Amino acid sequence: MHIHDSMIDLVGNTPLVRLNRVTQGIQATVLAKVEYFNPGGSVKDRIALRMIEAAEESGALRPGGTIVEPTSGNTGVGLAMVAQQKGYKCVFVCPDKVSTDKINVLRAYGAEVVVCPTAVDPEHPDSYYNVSDRLVREIPDAWKPDQYSNPNNPLSHYHSTGPELWEQTEGRITHFVAGVGTGGTISGTGRYLKEVSDGKVRIIGADPEGSVYSGGSGRPYLVEGVGEDFWPSAYDRTVTDAIVAVSDKDSFQMTRRLAKEEGLLVGGSCGMAVVAALEVAREAGPDDVVVVLLPDSGRGYLSKIFNDEWMNDYGFLDEAGEHPRVGDVL
Ligand code: PMP
């Protein structure tokens, strides 16, 4: 029988797909690593599995224990799915800018979700970092994976995403582009690709304008899951060769194009990463192979990026080629 023992066995080994339309005029091959094929729907299943297994091995997570984590959604889904299969409870702490769609998904997996204000300093007692620390102290047998400082976050990519890309491209990958949130994806995948290629593969981070990685002050932006207002230890700055800053507007318009032109219904950080990848690919030659990682699906953003009214409210829909709204005079 061709069966899998549980959903956990389906984490990783995601497909690599050529981008054909948004790449017009570009000579290099541009390939997308489509992470929504993971069973929890995002790249974060990879880190959830490795962080939990390492905590079981070290004894930090005991049978029947509770996982407490501040997460913008995707890490929560990965942790909730793996936790449920292994018999752990989950409490997640989310900032209030996260879409209700994402929060409802966490609750569907049986997790408890605490929502905190975005507009407070990280040091404030109500910040989502501090609330989660308090919950860890108060809940018996609680364990906090802390994806921002857990070495198993980048290590999961060093051991899975990196080798998969090297194998899938038969060693022909020349550039790797990924959005930077905790920095785990780019640091782990990048380190593996640098090592296996004797430093030849170029590693490029994509970052929302305003975030610290591209020299911003930490001012707000709307793309979810990427950019930071501090430097997490999961991010190894020595791995990235360059960082490309991308605006919310460019990110979301590209996200819509990926659905309409490539059949890829993906999230806003994917559009952001593709804008950066195309910038890199425009400078690359015909033998170059640029791989861009797409972290999640667009299903969690239907009421935002794929909603004309929301896009219009922020002035993101003024380019030619967008379809008219109901009531517009044609
Ligand atoms: N995009 C989305 C939607 C995410 O949830 C994350 C994770 N925060 C990222 C990109 C960035 O990945 P990483 O944390 O590995 O840098």
Automatic annotation (TrEMBL):
<keyword id="KW-0129">CBS domain</keyword>
<dbReference type="GO" id="GO:0004122">
    <property type="term" value="F:cystathionine beta-synthase activity"/>
</dbReference>
<comment type="pathway">
    <text>Amino-acid biosynthesis; L-cysteine biosynthesis; L-cysteine from L-homocysteine and L-serine: step 1/2.</text>
</comment>
<keyword id="KW-0456">Lyase</keyword>
<keyword id="KW-0663">Pyridoxal phosphate</keyword>
<dbReference type="GO" id="GO:0019344">
    <property type="term" value="P:cysteine biosynthetic process"/>
</dbReference>
<comment type="similarity">
    <text>Belongs to the cysteine synthase/cystathionine beta-synthase family.</text>
</comment>
<protein>
    <recommendedName>
        <fullName>Cystathionine beta-synthase</fullName>
        <ecNumber>4.2.1.22</ecNumber>
    </recommendedName>
</protein>
<dbReference type="GO" id="GO:0016765">
    <property type="term" value="F:transferase activity, transferring alkyl or aryl (other than methyl) groups"/>
</dbReference>
